[in-house]
């Protein structure tokens, strides 16, 4: 806990310092320039410098024999007099010690002198002379500086550290790509405009190619599409390697998640999907690496038109021109003049978009009360379960005609949606300080989601978008009418090699501290930014006590662990199992199939309530983690094939749970000790004939069950299981109230503003 608190404190100070430094040091590039900031030397954030322990050489007995033992009271007076000398502070500043470092170094030096049983002979003699009036207090300075540079070794190698963390010319990191003249083609357009289709057609025609996408689902879709078209294609994701050749020989084409693309393998054609994500604060570095580093004769990038100018400017730095192909939406979609207002007004092909699991559960339950069946899709579901739910919703012969989903539907799934219904226009977000905040949807996010309605390949040739609440509708219209914010910067991330070079100069620093110092000293020009490393540092602090080589520690900290899971128990389960993996690895003990089964309590059974479902999802993430590590440390994670088999079985178990999610919600409600206040949702209205056929055949749900809410049930259940304390629950309730108040005030304020504008 102390390490996490220190980490949070350091991050806050670093963020503020870094923002001030960049704001002051980033002049606007002149017309036609590359935006490189030349001659700027960043001022290090000395609050990140952690002093290391030092020891005496142990020859203090010699000093005492030549003089006499030192009297500590007199010694303290001498040291304090030295500290107050302005001349000494100025001399220290000339050698890189600001007021903070000078104070820290003095406190350490004073403790060293007063508590060390045996001081070095030269220091002992100097101090003895000063105490006896035979020397001047300024004579301490060389010995103080010797000690200061021992506890702050980074100051002696600051020039080297600045060179290592100089990120101003990332185009030079990829000599193989710079050795060829690449053709850059930008396919720009909104969702459902055919931009990716045209890029993929060129990919299929090429002798060799690589597709780089943001999601496993998208990579898998291209993998299947390519092989179906008779073009042998392999699949490479963080957790999976699938080779179509029976002997494991690599195919000429590969579909991969963007982090996994090779920047040394030559290709004829490369496709980079969703290029606007180059500005993503966490993953943007992967798009930057692919765009600058892929060795392909043709690079086809697909994405929003808002990224055209930036990508063109970025390619000036490589000497490559950008050919732009613009596309328009293949099918129209319109904004409705009426909000839905009531779940009784749902129609076949509707998709209700929520931004939290609790809302997913609540809306699903209310739909079931009305005798309707719905499919459910949210981010933490396994890919197989998402595809199964999408298939259920798309099947014209299935009774399921309604979809309840998060913004996970924005990419990677082909869905027959007629109308998108926004349940809310604010989305939870975690800022760079690690604090949760509610932010209104951006135009880009709203368009990405709204564009899923009326897709070209679906049965609905025209899409609609609206809101659940009447007061949200004018806000949505205003959001969608705004131009998309242009992409202005590309993400970068320190590599393992750079951190290893830092560690060579700072062998006593922790990985978390190395990253802090790296980011503090890093130099970037106006085209780039350093990606958020909060998650990486969080994991680094969690395993700092485990003995590991730096490279292994770095790899473990890049593992796919999401510490921002919406359920505390799910996050804790994943992190605890990850720490157990790291500990076992550090002992050189292979992590076997039996070891994993014990840790996830395999075999697992179908869920009986929501808590069970959440646990199954967390167990699936743990198996993903094992597979991810197995491709980095094959000898230590030897049972990948067995793990993949039980993961497929677990995916099927989760699918059973999600198909019966409303039953799980009812079971969770039934376990609540007391019901919540009556729901304010209006009673059901007569349904249209097309929806009557989709009614679920079961007994009428009791009035008491209808009145209970999922949030209260989950809270009570988590309290009973010991996963929440009453104090934490109270804090969560305050945050929930704050978020709801923000959402309401946001809608009210925007509606008022729109009325004034009219």
TrEMBL record:
E.C. no: 3.6.4.13
Short name of any one Pfam family annotated for the protein: Suv3_C_1
Location relative to the cell: Mitochondrion matrix, Mitochondrion nucleoid
Keywords for the protein's UniProt record, in alphabetical order: ATP-binding, Helicase, Hydrolase, Mitochondrion, Mitochondrion nucleoid, Nucleotide-binding, Transit peptide
GO biological process: mitochondrial RNA 3'-end processing
Keyword Transcription regulation: no
PROSITE patterns: HELICASE_CTER (PS51194)
Family: Belongs to the helicase family.
Name the record gives this protein: ATP-dependent RNA helicase SUPV3L1, mitochondrial
Source organism (scientific name): Astyanax mexicanus (Blind cave fish)
């Amino acid at each position: 806990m102390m390490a996490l608190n220190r980490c949070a404190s350091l991050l806050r100070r670093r963020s503020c310092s870094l923002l001030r430094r960049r704001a002051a040091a980033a002049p606007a590039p002149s017309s036609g320039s590359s935006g490189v900031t030349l001659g700027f030397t960043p001022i290090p954030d000395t609050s990140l410098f952690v002093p290391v322990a030092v020891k005496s050489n142990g020859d203090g007995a010699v000093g005492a024999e030549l003089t006499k033992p030192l009297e500590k009271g007199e010694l303290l007076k001498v040291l304090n007099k030295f500290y107050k000398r302005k001349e000494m502070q100025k001399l220290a500043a000339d050698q890189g010690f600001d007021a903070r470092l000078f104070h820290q170094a003095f406190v350490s030096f004073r403790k060293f002198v007063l508590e060390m049983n045996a001081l070095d002979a030269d220091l002992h003699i100097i101090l003895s002379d000063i105490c006896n009036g035979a020397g001047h207090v300024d004579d301490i300075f060389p010995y103080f500086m010797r000690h200061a540079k021992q506890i702050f070794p980074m100051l002696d190698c600051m020039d080297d550290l600045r060179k290592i963390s100089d990120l101003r010319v990332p185009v030079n990191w990829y000599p193989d790509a710079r050795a060829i003249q690449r053709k850059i083609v930008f396919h720009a357009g909104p969702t459902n405009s055919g931009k990716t289709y045209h890029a993929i057609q060129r990919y299929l025609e090429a002798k060799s190619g690589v597709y780089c996408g943001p999601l496993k689902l998208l990579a898998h879709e291209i993998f299947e599409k390519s092989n179906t078209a008779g073009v042998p294609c392999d699949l490479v994701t963080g957790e999976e390697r699938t080779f179509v050749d029976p002997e494991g020989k690599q195919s000429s084409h590969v579909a991969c998640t963007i982090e996994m693309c090779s920047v040394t393998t030559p290709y004829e054609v490369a496709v980079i999907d969703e290029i606007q994500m180059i500005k993503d604060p966490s993953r943007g570095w992967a798009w930057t690496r692919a765009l600058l580093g892929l060795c392909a004769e043709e690079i086809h990038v697909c994405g929003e038109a808002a990224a055209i100018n930036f990508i063109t400017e970025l390619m000036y730095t490589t000497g490559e021109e950008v050919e732009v192909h613009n596309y328009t939406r293949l099918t129209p979609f319109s904004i409705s003049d009426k909000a839905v207002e009531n779940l009784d007004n749902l129609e076949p092909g509707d998709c209700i978009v929520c931004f939290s699991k609790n809302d997913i559960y609540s809306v699903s339950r209310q739909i079931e009360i009305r005798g309707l069946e719905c499919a459910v899709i949210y981010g933490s579901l396994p890919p197989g379960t998402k595809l199964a739910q999408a298939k259920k919703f798309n099947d014209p012969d299935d009774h399921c005609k309604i979809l309840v989903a998060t913004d996970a539907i924005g990419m990677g799934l082909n869905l027959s949606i007629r109308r998108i219904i926004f349940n809310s226009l604010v989305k939870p977000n975690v800022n760079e300080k690690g604090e949760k905040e509610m932010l209104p949807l951006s135009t880009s996010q709203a368009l990405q989601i709204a564009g899923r309605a009326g897709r070209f390949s679906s049965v609905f040739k025209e899409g609609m978008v609206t809101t659940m609440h009447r007061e949200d509708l004018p806000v949505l219209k205003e959001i969608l009418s705004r131009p998309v914010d242009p992409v202005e910067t590309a993400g970068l991330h320190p590599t393992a090699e750079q951190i290893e070079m830092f560690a060579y100069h700072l062998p006593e620093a922790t990985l978390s501290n190395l990253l802090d110092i790296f980011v503090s000293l890093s130099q970037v020009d106006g085209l780039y930014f350093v990606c958020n490393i909060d998650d990486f540092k969080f994991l680094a602090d969690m395993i700092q006590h485990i003995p590991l080589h730096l490279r292994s520690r770095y790899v473990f900290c890049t593992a796919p662990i999401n510490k921002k899971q919406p359920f505390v128990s799910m996050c804790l389960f994943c992190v605890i199992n990850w720490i157990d993996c790291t500990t076992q690895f550090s002992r050189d003990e292979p992590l076997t199939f039996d070891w994993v089964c014990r840790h996830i309590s395999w075999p697992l059974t179908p869920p009986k309530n929501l808590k069970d479902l959440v646990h199954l999802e967390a167990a699936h993430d743990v198996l993903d983690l094992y597979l991810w590590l197995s491709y980095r440390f094959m000898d230590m994670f030897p049972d990948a094939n067995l793990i993949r088999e039980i993961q497929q079985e677990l995916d099927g178990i989760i699918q059973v749970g999600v198909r019966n999610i409303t039953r799980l919600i009812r079971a969770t409600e039934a376990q609540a000790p007391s019901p919540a206040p009556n729901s304010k949702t209006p009673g059901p209205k007569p349904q249209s004939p097309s929806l009557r056929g989709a009614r679920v055949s079961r007994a009428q749900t009791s009035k008491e069950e209808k009145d209970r809410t999922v949030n209260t049930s989950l809270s009570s259940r988590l309290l009973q299981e010991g996963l929440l304390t009453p104090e934490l629950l109270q804090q969560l309730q305050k945050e929930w109230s704050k978020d709801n108040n923000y959402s309401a005030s946001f809608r009210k304020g925007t509606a008022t503003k729109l009325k004034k504008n009219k």
